[in-house]
Write a structure and sequence with these properties.
The protein is an alpha/beta fold. α6 packs antiparallel against α9. The two termini are 39 Å apart. It has two domains: 169 residues, Rossmann fold (3-Layer(aba) Sandwich), CATH 3.40.50; 105 residues, K homology (KH) domain (GMP Synthetase, Chain A, domain 3, 2-Layer Sandwich). The protein contains ten helices and ten strands. The strands form two sheets. Strands 1, 2, 3, 4, 5, 6 and 7 form a seven-stranded mixed β-sheet that branches. Bound molecules: guanosine-5'-triphosphate (GTP) and magnesium ion.
């Protein structure tokens, strides 16, 4: 048998849309590896955020996942499958609840799935910074009936409770190797993260069904001889009528999104960035297998 001085664990982060899973991953990792927004179903793939706690010789691999919801499209079905699939590679699960939302049937269904998955589960009751004391206590009381390994009230925005939560997660790790270099923060290729950062800037500006209909693909990325990183990206929408809304009056939205994304991208790459962003229609891609395949889902 191999003997390890180090400990490690894959921890799948699950919960309903918009409860703060990605915000939590970012604060645990200490840098932005996953985009966040106040629109449900922001996350569309499983992103691994890496936390190495050197003084405890432990490496956590946090798997951020899409919010579990009632699927209405082929995309929705694929996303839910992705989440439950992530449990197969996980040593533990972190179940995130929103303290300001009563526990509903959606949460109960997730709790059942987690119970039957057999992995140890830690529950984080998030957003305590904007919840009443009664709400928090009520949630802990209801969720407490599930008998999971630990319950920690937290705020992923103020970092309240993050240390105790990290301690609980570290405690679940078993002897094992570090799967990533200690200074790694994510397994996500730069090209994917770049596309996500661009999509995030759109999400903050789009209303109604548009956030769901939007996908961003980085077609090309190269560092030029002058050191500038040149990025060609396409934002896809589902219908002709959506194209104008995403472009904005006189091109205003794409322009603002491009400007804002460039700031993040330049920070990410530590270099000047030239961003060429276009908008195209990929008819009903959310509902079509070929569209989903083409856009990389
Ligand atoms: N006040 C407050 N807001 C929070 C907290 N955590 C997350 N949020 C906000 O909640 C919204 C959703 O956060 P996300 O991290 O994108 O949520 P998610 O669970 O990853 O959502 P999906 O990817 O759609 O499943 C964002 O507007 C966050 O800023 C928190 O602790 N306190
Ligand atoms: Mg998310």
């Amino acid at each position: 048998m191999t003997h390890f001085d180090t400990r490690s664990g894959f921890i799948s982060i699950v919960g309903r849309p918009n409860v703060g899973k990605s915000t939590l991953v970012n604060i645990l990792v200490g840098t932005k590896v996953a985009i966040t927004s106040d629109r449900p179903q922001t996350t569309r793939n499983t992103i691994r955020g890496i936390v190495t706690v050197l003084e405890k010789n432990t490496q956590l691999v946090l798997i951020d996942t899409p919010g579990i919801h009632k699927p209405r499209t082929e995309l929705g079905e694929r996303l839910n499958r992705l989440v439950y699939g992530s449990l197969a590679e996980a040593d533990a699960a972190l179940f995130v609840l929103d303290a300001t939302q009563p526990i509903g049937p959606g949460d109960r269904r997730i709790a059942e799935r987690l119970s039957s998955s057999g992995v140890p589960v830690v529950v984080a009751v998030n957003k305590v910074d904007i919840a009443d004391k009664e709400e928090i206590i009520g949630q802990l009381a209801v969720a407490g009936e599930w008998n999971f390994a630990a319950y920690v009230p937290i705020s992923a925005t103020t970092a309240d409770g993050i240390e105790p939560l990290l301690d609980e997660l570290v405690a679940l790790c078993e002897p094992g190797p570090f799967f990533f270099p200690p200074d790694a923060t994510s397994d996500q290729p730069d090209q994917l993260l770049a596309g996500e950062l661009i999509r995030e800037k759109f999400l903050a500006r789009l209303r109604e069904e548009l956030p769901h209909s939007l996908a961003v693909v980085v077609d090309e990325m190269e560092t030029q001889d002058n050191g500038v990183v040149r990025i060609e990206a396409t934002a896809y929408v589902e219908r002709d009528s959506q194209k104008g809304m995403v472009i904005g009056k006189g091109g205003r939205i794409v322009r603002d999104v491009g400007t804002e994304a460039r700031v993040d991208l330049e920070k990410l790459f530590g270099a000047r960035v030239f961003l060429d962003l276009r908008v195209k229609v990929e008819k009903d891609w959310q509902r079509r297998s070929d569209g989903l395949d083409r856009l990389g889902f």
